[in-house]
Amino acid sequence: MIISSRKKNEELLQALEGKGKVFLVGCGACATACRSGGEEEVFAMQEWLQSTGRDVTGWVVIDEACHIMRAGRDLRQHRAQVEEADALLVLACGAGVQSMSSSTDQRVIGALDSLFLGNIRRFGQYEEKCSLCGDCILNETAGICPVTNCAKGLLNGPCGGLEEGRCEVDREIDCAWHLIFERLKRQKRPGVFARTVPAKNWGKVRKPGRHKIKS
Ligand code: SF4
Ligand code: SF4
Fold it and tell me: Residue with the nearest Cα to atom 4 of ligand 1?
């Protein structure tokens, strides 16, 4: 899921300058799961906005804010409140914010920073796991991503800085390539160590990304 966190009040105040009436949008998916943009956070934002002298014309938590059609449908259902507002403040990842921008000509302001694609270890503890490189080698690396988990993103590790299983960049963290080696050893297969991995073709990461499932 997309891990996000709330922007600081000062940054929000700057973005909201001159905007006295605000419509709030939350996201029922990732932003709810990492408690940056669910119902509770929308209510907390409402209270904070009111404490700054602003009016909240209304709010909605969209099931998945990144779903452009749903975003459009939900905003239409709140048309009067949306139109009354000077701006929409969106508690969702960057994709969610852009769903709103696609659905209204009103000023749209993002309230969150999108941090990374990650996993939840437990509530409040998130770990980046994939850098969306477009050319996945997890099947050869025993399910551990070196692009993301190696501090240098090496494809043919480990580097000379490995020491007692720890990474030279940060001795507090495990060396990804050590973990890959140990897990492959337990699986009794050479995996990625059977070959030299060529330099990554970052051309496969298309910007902007598009993917359409063929029917
Ligand atoms: S190899 Fe690429 S696609 Fe696979 S997990 Fe790592 S960054 Fe993500
Ligand atoms: S010690 Fe391991 S994780 Fe750290 S940079 Fe070198 S190969 Fe990557």
Answer: 136
